[in-house]
Amino acid sequence: MTTATLRPPEAAGIGRGLALALLAHGLLLLALSWGLHWRSDSSAAFEAELWAAVPQVAAPREEAPPEPAPRPEPPRSDPKLAAQEAAAEQQREAEIAIAKAKQLKEAREKEREREREREREKAAKEAKEAREAKEKEAKAAKEKAAKEARQAKEADARREALRQENLRRIQGMAGGTPGSTGAAAQNAAPSAGYAGRIKGKIRPLIIYADDGAANPTAEVQVALAPDGRILGSKVLKASGDGDWDRAVLRAIEKAETLPRDVDGRVPPVLILSFRPRE
Protein backbone atom coordinates (compact mmCIF):
# COMPACT_ATOMS: atom_id res chain seq x y z
CA MET A 1 0.00 0.00 0.00
CA THR A 2 1.50 3.37 -1.12
CA THR A 3 2.10 6.04 1.54
CA ALA A 4 1.53 9.71 0.42
CA THR A 5 3.70 12.57 1.90
CA LEU A 6 1.60 15.19 3.54
CA ARG A 7 2.87 18.90 3.22
CA PRO A 8 1.12 22.16 2.91
CA PRO A 9 0.43 23.39 -0.54
CA GLU A 10 2.75 26.11 -1.93
CA ALA A 11 1.41 29.51 -1.52
CA ALA A 12 0.62 31.31 -4.68
CA GLY A 13 2.92 34.32 -5.59
CA ILE A 14 5.88 33.44 -3.36
CA GLY A 15 8.32 34.27 -6.14
CA ARG A 16 6.93 37.77 -6.44
CA GLY A 17 7.45 38.44 -2.73
CA LEU A 18 11.01 37.20 -2.83
CA ALA A 19 11.78 39.50 -5.73
CA LEU A 20 10.39 42.51 -3.88
CA ALA A 21 12.45 41.65 -0.78
CA LEU A 22 15.63 41.41 -2.79
CA LEU A 23 14.90 44.70 -4.50
CA ALA A 24 14.30 46.43 -1.16
CA HIS A 25 17.58 45.09 0.27
CA GLY A 26 19.45 46.20 -2.82
CA LEU A 27 18.07 49.76 -2.58
CA LEU A 28 18.98 49.89 1.10
CA LEU A 29 22.56 48.87 0.35
CA LEU A 30 22.83 51.53 -2.33
CA ALA A 31 21.54 54.19 0.05
CA LEU A 32 24.01 53.20 2.76
CA SER A 33 26.87 53.15 0.31
CA TRP A 34 26.02 56.66 -1.01
CA GLY A 35 25.72 58.05 2.51
CA LEU A 36 29.14 56.78 3.47
CA HIS A 37 30.68 58.15 0.31
CA TRP A 38 29.06 61.61 0.88
CA ARG A 39 30.66 61.96 4.38
CA SER A 40 34.08 60.60 3.45
CA ASP A 41 37.14 62.99 3.21
CA SER A 42 39.24 62.57 0.08
CA SER A 43 42.04 64.98 1.17
CA ALA A 44 45.61 63.63 1.23
CA ALA A 45 46.79 62.05 4.47
CA PHE A 46 50.11 62.83 6.16
CA GLU A 47 52.26 60.36 7.94
CA ALA A 48 54.93 61.06 10.56
CA GLU A 49 57.80 58.79 11.54
CA LEU A 50 59.37 58.92 14.98
CA TRP A 51 63.16 58.67 15.29
CA ALA A 52 65.22 58.06 18.32
CA ALA A 53 67.55 61.09 17.81
CA VAL A 54 67.28 64.43 15.96
CA PRO A 55 70.23 65.28 13.70
CA GLN A 56 72.16 68.50 14.50
CA VAL A 57 71.93 71.19 11.86
CA ALA A 58 74.55 73.96 11.61
CA ALA A 59 73.40 77.49 12.40
CA PRO A 60 73.22 79.79 9.37
CA ARG A 61 76.10 82.19 8.85
CA GLU A 62 75.54 85.71 10.08
CA GLU A 63 75.31 88.24 7.31
CA ALA A 64 75.82 92.01 7.64
CA PRO A 65 72.66 94.10 7.26
CA PRO A 66 72.31 95.77 3.90
CA GLU A 67 73.40 99.34 3.74
CA PRO A 68 70.50 101.81 3.52
CA ALA A 69 69.92 103.30 0.17
CA PRO A 70 71.17 106.89 -0.04
CA ARG A 71 68.46 109.50 0.30
CA PRO A 72 67.76 111.43 -2.80
CA GLU A 73 68.89 115.00 -2.63
CA PRO A 74 66.05 117.52 -2.46
CA PRO A 75 65.59 119.44 -5.64
CA ARG A 76 67.37 122.73 -5.59
CA SER A 77 64.99 125.68 -5.70
CA ASP A 78 65.36 128.25 -8.38
CA PRO A 79 66.05 131.71 -6.79
CA LYS A 80 64.14 133.52 -9.51
CA LEU A 81 61.15 131.22 -9.09
CA ALA A 82 61.25 131.64 -5.29
CA ALA A 83 61.43 135.43 -5.67
CA GLN A 84 58.48 135.37 -8.06
CA GLU A 85 56.46 133.21 -5.66
CA ALA A 86 57.33 135.52 -2.73
CA ALA A 87 56.35 138.56 -4.79
CA ALA A 88 53.09 136.90 -5.81
CA GLU A 89 52.34 136.04 -2.15
CA GLN A 90 53.04 139.63 -1.10
CA GLN A 91 50.81 140.87 -3.89
CA ARG A 92 47.97 138.61 -2.73
CA GLU A 93 48.39 139.76 0.88
CA ALA A 94 48.42 143.40 -0.25
CA GLU A 95 45.25 142.90 -2.30
CA ILE A 96 43.55 141.21 0.69
CA ALA A 97 44.61 144.08 2.99
CA ILE A 98 43.33 146.67 0.48
CA ALA A 99 39.99 144.84 0.15
CA LYS A 100 39.60 144.67 3.93
CA ALA A 101 40.47 148.38 4.31
CA LYS A 102 37.95 149.25 1.59
CA GLN A 103 35.22 147.22 3.28
CA LEU A 104 36.02 148.85 6.65
CA LYS A 105 35.91 152.30 5.07
CA GLU A 106 32.55 151.59 3.42
CA ALA A 107 31.14 150.28 6.72
CA ARG A 108 32.31 153.40 8.58
CA GLU A 109 30.88 155.65 5.87
CA LYS A 110 27.51 153.88 6.09
CA GLU A 111 27.55 154.23 9.89
CA ARG A 112 28.32 157.97 9.60
CA GLU A 113 25.52 158.38 7.06
CA ARG A 114 23.09 156.62 9.41
CA GLU A 115 24.25 158.87 12.26
CA ARG A 116 23.71 161.99 10.12
CA GLU A 117 20.27 160.73 9.15
CA ARG A 118 19.38 160.20 12.83
CA GLU A 119 20.62 163.72 13.64
CA ARG A 120 18.55 165.20 10.80
CA GLU A 121 15.46 163.35 11.98
CA LYS A 122 16.09 164.49 15.56
CA ALA A 123 16.58 168.11 14.45
CA ALA A 124 13.42 167.99 12.34
CA LYS A 125 11.48 166.54 15.27
CA GLU A 126 12.79 169.18 17.67
CA ALA A 127 12.03 171.95 15.16
CA LYS A 128 8.50 170.63 14.73
CA GLU A 129 7.97 170.42 18.48
CA ALA A 130 9.38 173.95 18.94
CA ARG A 131 7.14 175.27 16.16
CA GLU A 132 4.09 173.58 17.65
CA ALA A 133 4.97 174.91 21.11
CA LYS A 134 5.45 178.42 19.70
CA GLU A 135 2.14 178.25 17.86
CA LYS A 136 0.48 177.00 21.02
CA GLU A 137 1.99 179.83 23.07
CA ALA A 138 1.00 182.39 20.44
CA LYS A 139 -2.53 181.03 20.40
CA ALA A 140 -2.71 181.10 24.20
CA ALA A 141 -1.30 184.66 24.27
CA LYS A 142 -3.79 185.74 21.63
CA GLU A 143 -6.67 184.22 23.55
CA LYS A 144 -5.41 185.81 26.77
CA ALA A 145 -5.07 189.22 25.09
CA ALA A 146 -8.56 188.91 23.63
CA LYS A 147 -9.91 187.92 27.04
CA GLU A 148 -8.13 190.80 28.77
CA ALA A 149 -9.35 193.24 26.10
CA ARG A 150 -12.90 191.96 26.54
CA GLN A 151 -12.65 192.23 30.31
CA ALA A 152 -11.14 195.72 30.03
CA LYS A 153 -13.93 196.78 27.71
CA GLU A 154 -16.54 195.41 30.09
CA ALA A 155 -14.80 197.13 33.02
CA ASP A 156 -14.73 200.43 31.10
CA ALA A 157 -18.41 200.05 30.34
CA ARG A 158 -19.18 199.40 34.00
CA ARG A 159 -17.03 202.37 35.12
CA GLU A 160 -18.67 204.66 32.57
CA ALA A 161 -22.12 203.57 33.67
CA LEU A 162 -21.16 204.13 37.31
CA ARG A 163 -19.66 207.52 36.50
CA GLN A 164 -22.80 208.63 34.73
CA GLU A 165 -24.85 207.40 37.63
CA ASN A 166 -22.69 209.30 40.12
CA LEU A 167 -22.86 212.43 37.99
CA ARG A 168 -26.62 212.21 37.84
CA ARG A 169 -26.77 211.61 41.57
CA ILE A 170 -24.48 214.50 42.47
CA GLN A 171 -26.10 216.91 40.08
CA GLY A 172 -29.49 215.84 41.33
CA MET A 173 -28.33 216.59 44.87
CA ALA A 174 -27.09 220.01 43.71
CA GLY A 175 -30.40 220.69 41.98
CA GLY A 176 -28.85 221.11 38.53
CA THR A 177 -28.61 219.19 35.33
CA PRO A 178 -25.61 217.70 33.55
CA GLY A 179 -23.54 220.43 31.94
CA SER A 180 -24.96 223.22 34.13
CA THR A 181 -22.64 226.07 35.24
CA GLY A 182 -24.67 227.39 38.13
CA ALA A 183 -23.52 228.06 41.67
CA ALA A 184 -24.46 224.54 42.82
CA ALA A 185 -22.29 222.98 40.13
CA GLN A 186 -19.41 225.24 41.08
CA ASN A 187 -19.82 224.40 44.75
CA ALA A 188 -19.71 220.65 43.83
CA ALA A 189 -16.23 221.02 42.21
CA PRO A 190 -13.20 219.75 44.21
CA SER A 191 -11.07 222.20 46.12
CA ALA A 192 -7.93 223.75 44.65
CA GLY A 193 -5.46 221.51 46.53
CA TYR A 194 -7.42 218.28 46.26
CA ALA A 195 -5.78 217.17 43.00
CA GLY A 196 -2.33 217.74 44.56
CA ARG A 197 -3.25 215.56 47.54
CA ILE A 198 -4.44 212.81 45.21
CA LYS A 199 -1.28 212.93 43.11
CA GLY A 200 0.83 213.00 46.28
CA LYS A 201 -0.60 209.58 47.26
CA ILE A 202 -0.26 208.06 43.79
CA ARG A 203 3.21 209.28 42.77
CA PRO A 204 5.21 207.28 45.40
CA LEU A 205 3.62 204.12 44.03
CA ILE A 206 4.82 204.73 40.45
CA ILE A 207 7.67 202.39 39.45
CA TYR A 208 9.31 203.68 36.28
CA ALA A 209 12.90 203.63 34.99
CA ASP A 210 13.46 207.21 33.81
CA ASP A 211 16.40 206.70 31.45
CA GLY A 212 15.50 209.27 28.80
CA ALA A 213 15.56 213.04 28.65
CA ALA A 214 11.90 213.34 27.61
CA ASN A 215 9.19 214.25 30.10
CA PRO A 216 5.95 212.77 28.64
CA THR A 217 2.53 213.62 30.10
CA ALA A 218 -0.07 210.92 30.75
CA GLU A 219 -3.63 212.10 31.30
CA VAL A 220 -5.79 209.56 33.12
CA GLN A 221 -9.35 209.40 34.32
CA VAL A 222 -10.12 207.89 37.72
CA ALA A 223 -13.62 206.76 38.76
CA LEU A 224 -14.28 206.89 42.52
CA ALA A 225 -16.95 205.58 44.87
CA PRO A 226 -18.51 207.93 47.45
CA ASP A 227 -16.28 206.43 50.15
CA GLY A 228 -13.09 207.08 48.15
CA ARG A 229 -12.58 203.58 46.71
CA ILE A 230 -11.05 203.52 43.24
CA LEU A 231 -13.50 201.91 40.85
CA GLY A 232 -11.32 202.08 37.76
CA SER A 233 -8.91 204.12 35.69
CA LYS A 234 -8.04 204.63 32.07
CA VAL A 235 -5.73 206.71 29.92
CA LEU A 236 -7.51 209.61 28.27
CA LYS A 237 -4.43 210.99 26.54
CA ALA A 238 -1.42 208.77 26.02
CA SER A 239 2.01 210.18 26.71
CA GLY A 240 3.70 208.39 23.82
CA ASP A 241 5.64 206.22 26.28
CA GLY A 242 3.70 203.04 26.92
CA ASP A 243 5.85 202.10 29.92
CA TRP A 244 5.03 205.42 31.63
CA ASP A 245 1.29 205.06 30.95
CA ARG A 246 1.22 201.53 32.36
CA ALA A 247 3.29 202.55 35.38
CA VAL A 248 0.76 205.29 36.21
CA LEU A 249 -2.22 202.93 35.90
CA ARG A 250 -0.50 200.30 38.10
CA ALA A 251 0.19 202.94 40.76
CA ILE A 252 -3.51 204.00 40.78
CA GLU A 253 -4.56 200.37 41.20
CA LYS A 254 -2.12 199.96 44.12
CA ALA A 255 -3.54 203.05 45.85
CA GLU A 256 -6.99 201.31 46.07
CA THR A 257 -8.57 204.34 47.87
CA LEU A 258 -8.14 208.12 47.66
CA PRO A 259 -8.62 210.68 50.43
CA ARG A 260 -11.76 212.80 50.75
CA ASP A 261 -11.87 216.48 49.94
CA VAL A 262 -11.81 219.14 52.65
CA ASP A 263 -15.57 219.11 52.79
CA GLY A 264 -15.66 215.29 53.21
CA ARG A 265 -16.90 214.68 49.70
CA VAL A 266 -15.34 212.46 47.04
CA PRO A 267 -15.87 213.43 43.40
CA PRO A 268 -17.07 210.55 41.28
CA VAL A 269 -14.57 211.27 38.46
CA LEU A 270 -11.12 212.82 38.54
CA ILE A 271 -8.90 213.69 35.58
CA LEU A 272 -5.25 213.77 36.56
CA SER A 273 -2.02 214.43 34.65
CA PHE A 274 1.31 212.77 35.53
CA ARG A 275 4.85 213.45 34.33
CA PRO A 276 8.04 211.62 35.28
CA ARG A 277 9.67 214.89 36.38
CA GLU A 278 7.37 217.48 37.94
What would your notes on this structure say?
The model is unreliable at 173-187 (pLDDT under 50). The chain is elongated, with a radius of gyration of 74 Å. The chain is 54% helix and 8% strand. It has 278 residues and is mainly alpha-helical. Strands 2-1-3 form a 3-stranded antiparallel beta sheet. Among the domains are: 84-177; 190-274, Fusion Protein Consisting Of Minor Coat Protein, Glycine Rich Linker, Tola, And A His Tag, Chain: A, Domain 2, CATH 3.30.1150. It has helices spanning 14-39, 79-174, 183-188, 194-202, 242-255; strands at 218-224, 230-237, 269-274. A hairpin with a 5-residue loop joins strand 1 (218-224) and strand 2 (230-237).
Strand line-up in the sheet with most strands: 2-1-3
The amount of beta strand, in percent, is: 5-15%
Tell me the Rg in angstroms: 74 Å
The end-to-end distance, rounded to whole angstroms, is 221 Å
Unreliable runs, pLDDT <50, ≥5 residues?
173-187
Q: Please outline the major beta sheet.
A: 3 strands, antiparallel
Q: Sketch the topology as an H/E string, one letter per element.
A: HHHHEEHE
Kindly state the number of beta strands: 3
Structural class: mainly alpha
Structure annotation, total helices:
5
Helix content: 40-55%
Mean pLDDT: 77
Tell me the overall shape: elongated
